[in-house]
Amino acid sequence: MNRFFGFVLFSIGFSGFAQSTFSPSSFSLVNSAFDEQNPVLSPDGKTLFFTRGNHPENMDGKRDPGDIWFSVWIGDGWSAPVHAGPVLNNRGYNGVAGFSHDGNRMFLLSHYDPSGLARTQGISVSRKTGSGWSRPENIFIPYFQNKSSLQSGHVAADGTVFVYSAETYGSYGVEDLYISVRGADGKWSEPRNLGATINTQFQELSPSLSEDGNTLYFSSNGRKGLGSFDVYYSQRLDDSYLRWSEPVNSNTPINSEGRELFFRAYDSFGYSLFTSTKNSDGYGDIRYFVPEPKDSVVLVVVPDTVIKMREKKYDLLAANEIRIFGKVFDATNDSPVRANLKFTGSGKAFSSQAQGAQGYSINVISTESYSLEVIADGYISSLEKLDLHTLELRELEMNFRLQPIAVGATVNLKNVLFVQSKPALLPESYQELDLVVAFMQTNPTVEIELAGHTDSRGSFRQLMELSQQRVNRVKEYLVSKGIDKKRITGKGYGGSKPVASNDTEEGRVLNRRVEFIIKKK
Fold first, then answer.
1. What is the DSSP letter of 478?
2. Are residues 145 and 235 in the same domain?
3. 394 inside domain
4. In a domain, 393, yes or no
5. Does residue 112 sit in the same domain as residue 87?
């Protein structure tokens, strides 16, 4: 992961919507004589999406295995469901795999094709527009295959982890659970089987991850349970998503003599959703479960940074303060690093030092937005943006991984932005460029090569010229700040070196970038 200077905005305030009380009647308009499966909440908790099978209003009528429907919270229950329409549905199976944190991206459990039946397999993404949801864009996962007619899975809210059920090459029996992870280059990894601890020779279905990413929920008929399919949970043992603890049966009141599937835990709202065939004539009904109260935990994983948040009581903090703590690590070997950290926001500055294995700890105002610089001798500095605006959270763990200064290290200037189709810099680019200036001033022997890249839209000649002009503009800015021009070379590559697919806007955004490569220490 070569991400060193880019800004990442963390929004930590809890402004979500939660139902205060549920009753069995809350779902009376949702559950029907048809098969309701795969309940998924929007991030604000106000809209419930689910898949309804074999309904006459589905795209292929009663033959349709499942279309996406939705319902909205109306104060004491969910409204009568509405079919989500032809943009999100086709004649195949359709379901929601998850949402991005901000709710602007909906991940879907299938590929889409103008013919109505997808010719390829995988997941896709739809984007929220002023008039609804956009036509889904197919996401490519190498070697994705599912020979089963059952489709289920979950894309984590940060859009980097997809856990799903499939019958494919290498399965232990029929459907097994698999994981695919999106890298910093925007590409999804080849799926990996979660192994014999999770999978049996029977069926493992409908996996989902907890909001903190540390708990895996799934259903199986390959273990001793109360019914045909029971819900199980397992704890993640490392960062690979491939090592999990021995699964535990969720027992009653979740599991029954019926078939329980599609368990989703919404800890921030205080309840979970799942489906059950108990007392439903063999079809799935949507149920809810309210766990015992406990501290809330949210884990956000982003390139080179892991953030954990816990809500507790802290008598030593003022009402508007939050304690931020953590460690700084060497990205190549995970050894602790001594570093300086500076939080700057609204004219206020707070500083702390990471003391190697002891890490750092600092109290800051919790209702502010901050720029956070992490600087260490011999390492490439990191700059993050932290948007707190919370009175609920009292403690926040932020761990950083810094890249050593080394020949060949590539730095993506993620927030160096330009006017569309022009080489003119946007004002928000200067803070990141100024950090590059400071880095080169602190390391006067370092020489870099700038590399400009575009997406593939446009003529080859025009894209090459534009990328070169943008490289020249960045070099001009660095030189204007006192950096010797002999220390900077640059080249525009147009769209010849993509890091992601140009078939989607998400991929094109990743391809439009300026990088620098360290050529001499």
1. H
2. yes
3. yes
4. yes
5. yes
- Whether the CB-CB separation of 341 and 374 falls below 8 Å is answered with yes
CA angle 484, 486, 489 (to 5 degrees): 115
Answer yes or no: is 279 within a domain: no
- Are 102 and 156 in a shared domain? no
**What does 113-136 look like in DSSP terms, one character per residue?**
-TTSS-SS-SEEEEEEETTEEPPP
What Å distances lie between residue 346 and 333, 340, 357, 456, 520, CA to CA? 36, 20, 31, 40, 37
- Asked whether 58 and 66 are in contact (CB, 8 A), the reply is yes
Domain count, the chain: 4
**Boundary of a domain, candidates 402, 429, 456:** 402
For residue 495, give its domain range.
410-520
CB atoms within 10 A of CB 58: 24
Tell me how crowded residue 500 is: count the other CB atoms within 10 A of its CB.
Answer: 20
Residue with token string 């020489």: 447
- Burial class from Cβ neighbours inside 10 Å (0-12, 13-18, 19+) for residue 438 reads middle
Name the strand (E) or helix (H) holding 45: none
CA atoms within 13 A on the CB side of 237: 10
- Position 200, amino acid: T
CA-closest candidate to residue 3, choices 240, 295, 303, 224 = 303
Same domain, 153 and 260: yes
Residues 6+ apart with CB under 8 A from 261: 37, 152, 205, 206, 219, 229, 231, 274, 275, 276, 284
Reported as a single tens digit per residue, the pLDDT across 411-466 is 888 778 777 778 888 887 888 888 889 889 989 999 999 998 888 787 888 889 98
State pLDDT tens for residues 10-46: 333 333 344 445 666 788 899 998 999 999 999 999 9
Tokens representing 485 are 């021009």
452/445 Cα distance (integer angstroms): 23
Residue 436: burial class (beta carbons within 10 Å; 0-12, 13-18, 19+): buried
CB burial of 97-107 (b: ≥16 within 10 Å; e: otherwise) equals bbbbeeeebbb
Locate tokens 């273990």: which residue? Answer: 223
What tokens appear for 348 in the block? 């206020």
Provide the whole-model pTM. 0.56
CATH number of the domain enclosing 350: 2.60.40.10
Q: Can you tell me the distance from the alpha carbon of 295 to that of 309, in angstroms, rounded to the nearest whole number?
A: 10
Cβ atoms < 10 Å from Cβ of 243: 14
Token code pair at residue 289: 């479960």
For the chain (length 521 residues), average pLDDT per consecutive 10?
Answer: 35 39 78 94 94 95 95 88 95 95 95 83 94 93 92 95 93 92 92 94 95 94 87 91 92 89 90 86 82 46 44 58 88 88 82 87 84 86 76 78 88 77 81 87 92 83 89 93 94 83 70 86 84
